[in-house]
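User: Could you go from structure to sequence for me? I need the amino acid at each position, not a summary. Structure tokens:
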């Protein structure tokens, strides 16, 4: 048996080059991995501009105590530029976002102004107040986004503020999904005694989408060697990554390992973890292959631990660490030393900080334990039973 961390490291070592870049409109790039470094071609904002609606003046004209009466020389809406220069004793009515005119260095908010005919009486503000400096958000020439980062809504906004309409991102890896097992039938199809509806292909579909991949539904394969072989070869021809569930344990009909040994390279590992021990990893021609366990909880967990970082790396992502932090256990948990165990947990923020309990029965076939969960509780190899009040690692789902 190998530790989880070794299995992850070996898998990541297999993923060499990321998928190629493609240019996408910003509105299609959310959640994808940036494939270029972005340097700002311009200052944002492009000019000193007013942060408020008010009066642009020379700061020196304001009376340090009491108010000053200045002559109003014009009116400047956002989107326009004032052609003249503000001289001593003058004020220009200015709207938020309009460029501060030459001569002026300060804006007095409207709330501190009283109009008196041709003049305006202004209460004092500090010199330079209410002016947003050119380039205070982004300075021309600076590296603002680096390749390998995931584009979130704020990055799309920043790119747009730099004038970009398109951006280079890595093509989403195509991930073929196959379920194996004579007992597994398509949801909604007639189900004979002894058969169950396919759960895994649908959990995996969602996991692939969330990890930035493009799922490719390749259906269910019966436990027939020749058919499994043909379907896997076909899948490898169409996808960057092929995922199966089921057929990797030691039963008489667990054919995935044997077929993989014939058509590709296979590493079969017993990973020291609970749930989800059996895992087949390898290649079929140019594609990466993962044979995930059939038990629904184990297949979700093996995806999160082994497939997700591989997909992230394949999509060009640089940070492959999931978010983890500690919480206080509010109940006792059994744990066998020597393997890493993953409980499904409910994490709550209370007056005492983060607290976590399990979702109840933790069998690897109990998919509702994942449905009830908002986190995984990660109990490291060396650890034994957990007592209430101990600190444990959690990973939000
Ligand atoms: P196996 O590794 O093929 O022996 O499968 C282990 C367990 O997972 C068995 O109880 C299977 O019936 C179940 N199983 C396998 N594939 C699926 C699936 N796609 N959806 C739900 N359960 C499955
Ligand atoms: Mg099976």
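Assistant: Here is the amino acid at each position, in order:
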């Amino acid at each position: 048996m190998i530790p989880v961390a070794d299995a992850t490291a070996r898998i990541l070592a297999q993923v060499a080059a990321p998928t190629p870049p493609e240019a996408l409109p910003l509105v299609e790039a959310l959640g994808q991995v940036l494939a270029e470094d972005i340097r700002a071609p311009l200052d944002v904002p492009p000019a000193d501009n007013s942060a408020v609606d008010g009066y642009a003046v020379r700061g020196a004209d304001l009376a340090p105590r009491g108010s000053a009466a200045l002559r109003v020389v014009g009116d400047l809406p956002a989107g326009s530029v004032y052609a003249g220069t503000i001289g001593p004793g003058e004020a220009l009515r200015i709207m938020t976002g309009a460029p501060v005119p030459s001569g002026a260095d300060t804006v007095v908010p409207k709330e501190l102004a009283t109009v008196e005919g041709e003049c305006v009486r202004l209460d004092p503000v500090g010199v330079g107040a209410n002016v947003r400096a050119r380039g205070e958000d982004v300075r021309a020439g600076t590296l603002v986004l680096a390749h390998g980062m995931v584009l979130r809504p704020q990055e799309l906004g920043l790119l747009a503020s730099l004038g970009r309409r398109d951006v280079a991102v890595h093509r989403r890896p195509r991930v073929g999904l196959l379920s194996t097992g004579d007992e597994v039938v398509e949801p909604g199809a007639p189900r004979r005694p002894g058969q169950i509806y396919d759960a895994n292909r649908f959990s995996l579909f969602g996991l692939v989408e969330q990890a930035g991949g493009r799922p490719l539904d390749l259906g269910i394969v019966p436990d027939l060697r020749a058919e499994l072989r043909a379907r896997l070869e076909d899948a490898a021809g169409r996808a960057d990554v092929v995922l199966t569930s089921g057929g990797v344990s030691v039963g008489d009909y667990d054919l995935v390992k044997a077929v993989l040994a014939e058509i590709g390279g296979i590493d079969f590992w017993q990973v020291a973890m609970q749930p989800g021990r059996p895992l087949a990893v390898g290649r079929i021609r140019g594609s990466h292959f993962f044979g995930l366990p059939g038990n629904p909880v184990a297949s979700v967990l093996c995806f999160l631990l082994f497939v997700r970082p591989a997909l992230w790396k394949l999509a060009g992502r640089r940070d492959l660490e999931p978010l983890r932090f500690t919480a206080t256990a509010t109940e006792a948990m059994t744990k066998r030393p020597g393997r890493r165990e993953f409980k499904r947990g409910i994490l709550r923020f209370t007056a005492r900080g983060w607290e976590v309990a399990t979702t109840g029965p933790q069998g690897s076939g109990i998919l509702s334990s994942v449905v009830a969960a908002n986190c995984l509780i990660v109990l490291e190899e060396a650890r034994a039973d957990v007592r209430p009040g101990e600190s444990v690692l959690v990973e939000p789902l």
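One structural detail worth keeping in mind: The first helix runs from residue 4 to 14.
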